[in-house]
């Protein structure tokens, strides 16, 4: 609904009213960190999604205002705001999908790993609440460093006895969104026709776009592919620097988060062939978590798809990213069990 336009009129989804047909299932989505830079536009985009019937907006403060504002939009879902830890249980109860953009963003000069000390604890406590109040929800972790926060979430769920690897996702969609945009610009093809898988993790060199598999195909020189790869890996930093201390990507991230949550909802609803890249528990490489294409279904992950044929440059990138990704995963697991 976000990417497509209404063919007959050319009007965008924004001008259509988001009423779903009677057969559309009831689906509750909870956003944790909903008053933040990502949380607010993500709340708006999820309010526009006709697959959502109930939208719970949770943050430590500020959510009554966001909820009151968003709730006036004439689309299907009812919107409720929840502020403060004592309301977290109510926000989560009955949720089908929980999206977590809670935590501090980067400032210039910081890596995603520099956020670990604050965000690891936030994700740990929020996931403990998910285990308690909505253990069967699909969990979309946006909070960085994703390479560590997803393993943290898995350990929290294991301890609570609720872990289901099919229901835990690190959101790497923004890397795909960026790869598509940058590729289309360089290859001079219609961005609407472009797809680029992005695998590995979600930080610096662990982000590995597979431009050799990009559609529409274009004959780009090796140097151009290398420059596109670097730009995709540094896309977050490009935004952090441009915002000069006012945070990291929020609007493009909200778009990416909305795309991924929409894919999760479609999968839950039984729509066939819903495939998105995500950082999930994986046997695609020797690492326990890895981002690759994932087929989504009624139980979350239906199938983790393999990497396909890689160019020599991508093979090198894959080997180069493994040590950093491994250590970020281990750091998360160690923190969760400390
Ligand atoms: P922000 O600071 O604008 O908003 C974060 C929100 O989280 C705030 O409203 C804050 O009150 C809330 N929060 C803090 N502790 C909380 C708790 N215990 N429970 C509920 N809410 C809590 O930050 P922004 O820009 O929205 O970024 C959020 C996170 O998303 C950061 O960790 C950032 O690094 C990450 N991010 C991830 C991306 C990805 O591709 N996965 C891309 C961009 C950002």
UniProtKB/TrEMBL annotation:
It comes from the Eukaryota. Homodimer. Residues 28-170 form the Lactate/malate dehydrogenase N-terminal domain. One of its GO terms (biological process) is tricarboxylic acid cycle. The active site is at 202 (proton acceptor). GO terms for molecular function: L-malate dehydrogenase (NAD+) activity. NAD(+) binds at residues 33-39, 59, 119, 142-144, 253. It catalyses: (S)-malate + NAD(+) = oxaloacetate + NADH + H(+). Its EC number is 1.1.1.37. The keyword Oxidoreductase applies. The keyword Plastid does not apply. PANTHER family: MALATE AND LACTATE DEHYDROGENASE (PTHR11540), MALATE DEHYDROGENASE (PTHR11540:SF67). Pfam families: Ldh_1_C, Ldh_1_N. Belongs to the LDH/MDH superfamily. MDH type 1 family. This is Malate dehydrogenase. PROSITE patterns: MDH. It is an enzyme of class 1 (oxidoreductase). Substrate binds at residues 106, 112, 144, 178. The lineage of its organism: Eukaryota, Viridiplantae, Streptophyta, Embryophyta, Tracheophyta. Residues 172-335 form the Lactate/malate dehydrogenase C-terminal domain. It comes from Capsicum baccatum. Keywords: NAD, Oxidoreductase, Tricarboxylic acid cycle. GO terms for cellular component: mitochondrion. NCBIfam families: MDH_euk_gproteo (TIGR01772).
């Amino acid at each position: 609904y976000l990417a497509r336009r209404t063919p007959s009129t050319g009007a965008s989804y924004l001008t259509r009213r988001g009423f779903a047909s009677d057969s559309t299932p009831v689906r509750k989505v909870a956003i944790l960190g909903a008053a933040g830079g990502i949380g607010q536009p993500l709340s708006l985009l999820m309010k526009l999604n006709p697959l959502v019937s109930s939208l719970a907006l949770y943050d430590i403060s500020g959510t009554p205002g966001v909820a009151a504002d968003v709730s006036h939009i004439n689309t299907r879902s009812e919107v409720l705001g929840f502020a403060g830890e004592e309301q977290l249980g109510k926000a989560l109860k009955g949720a089908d999908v929980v999206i977590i953009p809670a935590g501090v963003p980067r400032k210039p000069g910081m890596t995603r790993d520099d956020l670990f000390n604050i965000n690891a604890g936030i994700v740990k406590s929020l996931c403990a609440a998910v285990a308690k109040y909505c253990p069967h929800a699909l969990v979309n972790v946006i909070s960085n460093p994703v390479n560590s926060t997803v393993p943290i979430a898995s350990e929290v769920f294991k301890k609570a006895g609720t872990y289901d690897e099919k229901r835990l996702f690190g959101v790497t969609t923004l890397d795909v969104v960026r790869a598509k945009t940058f590729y289309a610009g360089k290859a001079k093809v219609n961005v609407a026709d472009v797809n680029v898988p992005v695998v590995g993790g979600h930080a610096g060199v662990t982000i590995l776009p597979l431009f050799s598999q990009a559609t529409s195909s274009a004959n780009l020189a090796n140097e151009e592919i290398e420059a596109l790869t670097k730009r995709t890996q540094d896309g977050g930093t490009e935004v952090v620097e441009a915002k000069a201390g006012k945070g990291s990507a929020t609007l493009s991230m909200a778009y990416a988060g909305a795309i991924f949550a929409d894919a999760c909802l479609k999968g839950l609803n039984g729509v066939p062939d819903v495939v998105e890249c995500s950082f999930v528990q994986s046997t695609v490489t020797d690492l326990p978590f890895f981002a690759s294409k994932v087929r989504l279904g009624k139980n979350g992950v239906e199938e983790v798809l393999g990497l396909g044929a890689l160019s020599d440059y991508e093979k090198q990138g894959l080997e180069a990213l493994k040590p950093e990704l491994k250590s970020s995963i281990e750091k998360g697991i160690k923190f969760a069990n400390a």
